[in-house]
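Long-time lurker, finally posting.

We've been working with 3-hydroxyacyl-CoA dehydrogenase (Nocardioides anomalus) and I want a structural starting point before designing mutants. I don't trust myself to interpret raw outputs, so I'm hoping someone here can both generate the structure tokens and explain anything notable. Sequence follows.
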Amino acid sequence: MSADRPPVAVVGGGSIGVAWALVFARAGHEVAIFDVAAGRRGAVPGELRERLDELVAHGLLADPEPVASRVRVAQTLALAVRGAAHVQECVVESEEVKRALFAELDGLAEPRAVLASSSSMMPVSRFAADLPGRGRCLVVHPGNPPYLLPVAELVPAEFTTEDTVARTRALLEGAGMVPVLVRHEVEGFVFNRLQGALLREAYRLVRDGVASAADVDRVVSHGLGRRWAVIGPFATADLNTRGGLERHAEVMGPAYLRMGAEVGEREEWTPELVGEVAASVHERLRPEDWAASVLRRDRALMRVVAADPEL
Ligand SMILES: NC(=O)c1ccc[n+]([C@@H]2O[C@H](COP(=O)([O-])OP(=O)(O)OC[C@H]3O[C@@H](n4cnc5c(N)ncnc54)[C@H](O)[C@@H]3O)[C@@H](O)[C@H]2O)c1
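Top reply, 14 upvotes:
Generated this for you. Predicted structure of 3-hydroxyacyl-CoA dehydrogenase:
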């Protein structure tokens, strides 16, 4: 065991549990995984192996053996968390189940172990607020699957210690993840709030007969989503408009405001808010380099298309 690759426990051996086990084992951590269902405990090694073989087939992993050998299935929760510096909870999205499990984990885990929940929507204060060890609890929300989508949302509660956040960030960065900090607890965090905004509109468009569900999916997979593979929505607005993000807000903002008003939203993009976002975008994409940035985006898109012409 190396000090910067301490043992990790994964609790819950479903889709996300197996995927987190792969992430940590790929980075060199010994991983113990536990699931309450004996059937799942039996299925984990085979599923892990299938996922590793897929990565090898796609040139994303050289040798699956060392990764597979670092993952062991534990027969009890106590055995899984023994010696682990980080516990990644991946059980069903149920407040009751997570509350009971976190109480158990707080008693069983090593005193300095971080207790991280993969919760998609629920902040940790909903189920760990009363624990003696609540300071070491937070949400670490992955995309699915985390070994292909490296972003991980760190969502501390008010009671989570700074040391917990710092140690979790370091562990995730060491495992090749891209942690982002959600500064205060909101349901759905950032990932699922963005996803939710798009899904709500997608359902409305289908309901109102504007487009078929298949065509809505096509607009994202062959359009918006392909571009989002290389830049985010703010950078997109900046690079799609001569004059950058501020000009985009000026020209397009009123139409977006009207679209919002149609569904009862009255969220104006004030000059202060646009200015704050523009300042961040322009740190990454300098206005004087706008044309070069557009070219860089297009080249990145070309690499995406060239990597998979069937996209
Ligand atoms: N699937 C996704 O796209 C996704 C993405 C990010 C986060 N998440 C979150 O990750 C968590 C797990 O989701 P999933 O999709 O892997 O679910 P899943 O249903 O595939 O797996 C959950 C597993 O937890 C086990 N389990 C239930 N109670 C347990 C307990 N007390 N102790 C140990 N194991 C227990 C179940 O037997 C099951 O195998 C949820 O909170 C979910 O919201 C899911």
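Before you design anything, note these points.
The chain has two domains: 8-181, 190-307.
Residues 11-17, 34-37, 40, 90-93, 97, 101, 118-120, 141-142, 144 surround nicotinamide-adenine-dinucleotide (CB under 6 Å).
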